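re: the backbone from monday

yeah here it is again, tokenized this time
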């Protein structure tokens, strides 16, 4: 698992500077709930996860919902601090909730319901709030999905990864791919929206394997499909296998071919990209579905909150948060995290207050990745940003940015631009 970033020491009570209240009324507030438990640890994964038998006390799965509630209580006090309220921090209902992991559905539905209940009781959920949980296909059944829908969940994201057994085996995924259509159908029957996550570029995966996975995903008619390129992260089992020569490293050209294939297959099936790795099914009620400003009803609003620089509080060990230009991250180990909360202290391990240059860099990095694009009109109107206008012209000439939208001062990536998004960011900064 990656090390936590460096940063300043956060206050023991988790208090935020009054600067965090600036502009808060214009920003949505979201919640991320991290569940660190997994049945097995997959060889490619570097997320902050633990086999539940490794843990005990307040960090155990049995007590986890109550531990989360204690951090929610602490957050409520932080956001309602008089100095923040006086500076303009409003009481905001929660626009989106995302329960990730790990495998959240390692916990029983009653515990996930209790965690969501803590959020609802504390801040309330906005009308039409999006509430998502991740799940593995073998970690839920129809009764579980019905219970989650009854508790207020609106969406489930299944970790599919691949439809090909040999690819799943390389990834150390243990589910039977034949189970996925069963749980997708069960989820839809409860009224839950459905997303499936795919990974391409696994060592040994052929282009035909990847096409089979895409076609299997499309055949289930989910509302949303994510397609992520495999990254071999340092410290993982897969990294050791690559280092020893047991597996070949991912190939950039192979990844590019597979991304182009994903775009082709998913677009033909009625999906549209709204972020480089994310595609949403176009519905009859979508407006502007083929250009910037598109509103895809099935896009993940929680993910968009990140890419649009909104506010979110991440609960759980290793979770990251961002409120008003203040970013912080929790202690990674569940026992250390729970120990802090047991003593009435914030579990934050470090934080940083973003300066204006960092905020601008992140605005570009995140804005470029989404289909609505990065709005540079105010920059281009400023005579001090002449260089950025020239850069935009060069990006158009290189086929990385759509010419029509560039003329209106907006950076919208072409398909080639999506493959080279990092190069576009570097050029604009």
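seq for it, each position gets an aa:
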């Amino acid at each position: 698992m990656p090390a936590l970033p460096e940063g300043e020491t956060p206050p023991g009570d988790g208090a935020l500077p009054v600067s965090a209240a600036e502009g808060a009324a214009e920003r949505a507030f979201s919640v991320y709930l991290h569940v660190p438990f997994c049945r097995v640890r997959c060889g490619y994964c570097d997320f902050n996860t633990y086999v539940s038998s490794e843990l005990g006390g307040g960090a155990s799965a049995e007590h986890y919902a109550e531990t989360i509630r204690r951090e929610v209580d602490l957050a409520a006090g932080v956001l309602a601090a008089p100095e923040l309220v006086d500076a303009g921090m409003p009481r905001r209902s929660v626009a989106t909730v995302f329960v990730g992991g790990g495998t959240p559905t390692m916990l029983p539905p009653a515990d996930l319901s209790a965690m969501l209940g803590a959020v609802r009781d504390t801040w309330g959920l906005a009308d039409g709030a999006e509430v998502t949980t991740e799940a593995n296909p073998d970690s839920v059944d129809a009764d579980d999905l019905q219970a989650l829908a009854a508790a207020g969940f609106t969406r489930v994201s299944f970790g599919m990864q691949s439809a090909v057994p040999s690819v799943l085996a390389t990834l150390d995924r243990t589910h039977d791919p034949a189970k996925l259509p069963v749980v997708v159908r069960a989820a839809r029957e409860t009224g839950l929206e459905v997303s499936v996550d795919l990974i391409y570029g696994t060592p040994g995966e052929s282009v035909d394997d990847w096409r089979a996975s895409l076609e299997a995903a499309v055949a289930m008619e989910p509302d949303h499909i994510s397609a992520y390129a495999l990254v071999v992260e340092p410290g993982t089992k897969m990294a050791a296998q690559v280092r020893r020569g047991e597996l070949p490293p991912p190939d950039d050209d192979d990844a590019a071919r597979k991304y182009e294939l994903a775009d082709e297959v998913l677009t033909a099936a009625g999906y549209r990209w709204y972020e480089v790795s994310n595609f949403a099914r176009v519905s009859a009620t979508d407006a502007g579905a083929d250009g910037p400003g598109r509103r895809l009803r099935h896009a993940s609003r929680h993910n968009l909150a990140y890419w649009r620089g909104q506010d979110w509080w991440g609960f759980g060990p290793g979770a990251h948060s961002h409120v008003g230009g203040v970013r912080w991250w929790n202690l990674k180990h569940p026992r250390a995290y729970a120990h802090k909360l047991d003593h009435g202290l914030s579990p934050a391990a470090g934080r940083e207050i973003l300066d204006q240059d960092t905020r601008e860099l992140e605005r570009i990095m995140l804005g470029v990745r989404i289909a609505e694009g990065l709005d540079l009109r105010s920059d281009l109107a400023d005579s001090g940003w002449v260089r950025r206008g020239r850069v935009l012209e060069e990006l158009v000439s290189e086929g990385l940015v759509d010419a029509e939208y560039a003329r209106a001062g907006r950076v919208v990536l072409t398909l080639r631009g999506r493959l080279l998004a990092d190069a576009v960011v570097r050029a604009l900064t």
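DSSP finds 17 helices and 16 strands in the chain. Residues 252-268 form the longest helix (17 residues).
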